[in-house]
Amino acid sequence: MISRFNAEIGTATLTAGLGLAAVVGALEFGIGWGDAGPEPGAFPFYIGLLVVAASIGNLVQATAGRRGLQSVFLHKEEAKRVASFFVPMLAFVVVARLLGLYVATALYLAFVMRVQGQYRLAISIASGIAAAVIFYFVLEVAFQVPLMKGPLEAALGLY
Amino acid sequence: MENFASLLHGFGVALTTYHVMLMMVGVLLGILVGVLPGLGAPNGVSLLLPLTFTMDPVAAIILLTSMYWGALFGGSTTSILFNIPGEPSSVATTFDGYPMARQGQATQALTLAFLSAGFGALVGVILITVLSTWVAKFALRFSSPEYFAVYFLAFASFIGLGAASPFKTIVSMGLGFAFASVGMDTVSGGLRLTYGFNELLSGISFLIAVIGLFGIGELMLTMEEGLRFDGIRARVRIGDVFRTIATLPRYWVTLLRSSIIGCWMGITPGGPTAASFMSYGLAKRLSRRKEGFGQGEPEGVVAPETADHAAGSSAILPMLALGVPGSATAAVMMGGLMIWGLNPGPMLFVERPDFVWGLIASMYLGNIVAVLMVLATIPLFASILRIPFAIIGPVIVVVCFIGAYTVAGRPFDLWLALAFGVVGYLFKKLDYPIAPLVLAMVLGDKAEDAFRQSMIMSRGSLSIFWSNGLVATLMLIGLALAFGPLLSTALGRLVKPKASSAVA
C-alpha cells in the first residue's frame, strides 16, 4: 500500500531527476554566449533549472501538507488490477520487438481474452488472429503504412 | 466584408463531395474515439495524423478537425448514458446529464447536449470568421520578442488559470520544453541532449507523448478503477427530439453566457475542460433553480456543453492566426500543419488563403454534419460500450502502439510510448496537468528560436522584452496572469484575515 504522500515525493523526485538530467546534458553544449548568440545548451539549461526548482517546490509543499496526504494512493486490489493490465502490455512491447507487431497483436489479444475475459481458448485465438489480419489489411493495403514485421512475415513472404 | 468574401471562397474549397465524405468519416471516427475510454480527441488526432502525411493539406485538416468535433460529441454521449466522461472536458456534463438519463429523459439530455454543443461551436466559428484576419494582420507586426511574449502569455495563463498547483504546472511545462529540445538544435543544426543514445538523435515526437500520456495513461487509470458500465438504454425518438428543440430558446441566457466563457477560455489556453467547469459553476450560481442542479436540471447540461464546444472550436483561432494553440488537440493539429509543410501564424493567411478559409468554412459544415450524424448514430455507438472490456481494452492498447510506431517507423518509439504512459498515469493520479506538457513539446522549438533571436537582437539583454509598448503589454499581461491569482489570494488574506481560504 502506497500513501499519497509517498507517491507525491516519489514523482517530485523523478521530475527533479529529469530536470537535473537536462541541466547536466546542457552543460556539455555550452550555456553561455557564443558566436551566434546564446549557445545551444542555454535554453535547456535554464528550463532544467526551472524544473528542478518547481520539483523542490512540490517536495516542500508535500512535506508541509503531509498530514493531509495520508490517504491511500493505491490499494492492493487496485495495484493488482493495474499490474494485470500493465504486465501483458509490457510483454506485448517485448514480443513486438522480437516477432513484429502483427504476431504480438494476435498473441496479446488472445492472451488477454483467455486469461482476463475467460473466453474459450479457440475463440480467443481466432479473435487474436482475426484482429491481426484486419490491421494488416487496413494499414498495409488500404493506407500503405508498413508496420514492424518479424520472422513469421518473412517466412510467409509478406514484405 | 472582406472576410465574408473570403469565407464564400472557402465554402467553394470545402464543399466538394470528397471533402464532405471526409467530414462524415472524420466525425464517425471522432465519435468512436470519444466514446471509447482511453482514446480521446488529442489522442485520436495523433493516431490519425501519420495516415494523413500523404494527403492534400486541406483534405487532411478537414479530416482531423471533423474528428475533433466527433470526439467532443462522443465524449458527451458517454457522460450522459454511462456516467463515464469519454473526454475530460465532458466531466461537467455527467453532473446533470446522467441523472436526466436515469429519469428516462435520455433523449432530451442527448438532444440538448448536442444542440447546445452545436450552438457553442457555431459561435466559436463565427468568432474565428470575424476576428481571424484582424488578429493575423495585427500579428504581422510581431517580431521575435513579441512572439516570445505571446508564448510566455500562453504558458503564464496555464499557471494562473489552471486548477492544478502552480509548481506542478511548471514541472509539466518545463518537462515538455526539455523533451522538445532533445535531438537537433534548430538554430545551430547541432545535436544535443542525446546522452549517447542513437535512438534520441531525431528527437522525441510530441505525437508519441500524446499517445502515451493521454491513451495508455488513461487506460491504466480506467483499469485501476475497475471498469463498470451501468449504461442506460437509449433510443432516440424523433418526436422527443423536436419537442426538445422547441425548449432550447428558453435557455438563451445560459447559451450566450456559456458561449462567451467558452470562447474566452478557448482563445486563451484555458482549454475546454476549464471552460465547461467554469460555465457549469456560473450557471448553477446564477440559476433560479439552484437546488435542481445535480439532480437532472437541463440547464446543467446546456451550460457545460455549450462552453466545451465553444472553447474547442475557438481554440483554432490562436493556432491559425498566431501559431499558439489554445488546447491540447489544437496543439496536435498545429504539429500536423508543420509536418505538412505549412507554417501556422499570420503568414499562413497571406500565403495559403485557400487553406485557411477552406478550413474555416469546413468548420461550419463539419459541425452541422456532426450534429446530424451524432443524432443518427448514437444507439449504435452506445452499444460499443457493451462489448466486454477484455476485448475492447487490448484492442485500444494495440491501436495506441501501432499509432506510435506509424509516427516514424521506429521500434524505439514503442518503449517511449510505454514510458509516457506510466508518466501519464502518475501525473493524472497526482493532479499534474498534461496539456501544458503537450503544448510545450509542440511550441518548444519555436519558443526557443524566438528567445534566442531576441537575445541576438538585443545582444543578450533581457530588456528587449520591455523595449516597446506592444511587447511590454504582452509581458505584463503574462505576468499578471501567472501571479494574479497568487496576489489576489494574498491580498484577500490581508484584508480579511479571518475569512476561510475557499477561493475558487
Kindly describe this structure.
The complex is a heterodimer of chains A (159) and B (504). Chain A is mainly alpha-helical and 159 residues long. Chain A has helices spanning 4-27, 42-64, 76-99, 101-115, 121-143, 151-156; strands spanning 2-3, 33-34, 37-38, 72-74. A two-stranded antiparallel ribbon of chain A has the order 1-4. In chain A, helix 1 packs antiparallel against helix 2. With 504 residues, chain B is mostly helical. Chain B has one domain. Chain B contains 20 helices and two strands. Chain B has helices at residues 2-14, 17-35, 41-48, 57-82, 91-139, 144-161, 166-180, 206-225, 238-247, 252-267, 271-286, 299-314, 316-322, 328-339, 346-351, 353-384, 389-408, 412-429, 435-458, 469-495, and strands spanning 183-184, 191-192. Chain B has a two-stranded antiparallel sheet. The radius of gyration of chain B is 22 Å and the shape is globular. At the A-B interface, helix 1, strand 3, helix 2, helix 3 and helix 4 of A face helix 7, helix 8, helix 17, helix 18 and helix 19 of B.
| Major β-sheet strand ordering of chain B | 1-2
**Whole-number total of structural domains of chain B:** 1
The tally of domains of chain A stands at 2
- Spell out the helices and strands of chain B N to C: HHHHHHHEEHHHHHHHHHHHHH
Largest interface: A-B, 67 and 56 residues
Strand order of the largest sheet of chain A: 1-4
Radius of gyration of chain B: 22 Å
**Percent in helix of chain A:** over 70%
Oligomer: heterodimer
What's the total helix number of chain B? 20
> Roughly how much helix do the residues of chain B carry, as a percent range?
over 70%
Can you summarize the main beta sheet of chain B?
Answer: 2 strands, antiparallel
Shape of chain A: flat
Unreliable parts of chain A? none
Strand content of chain B: under 5%
Strand composition percent of chain A:
5-15%
Number of strand segments of chain B: 2
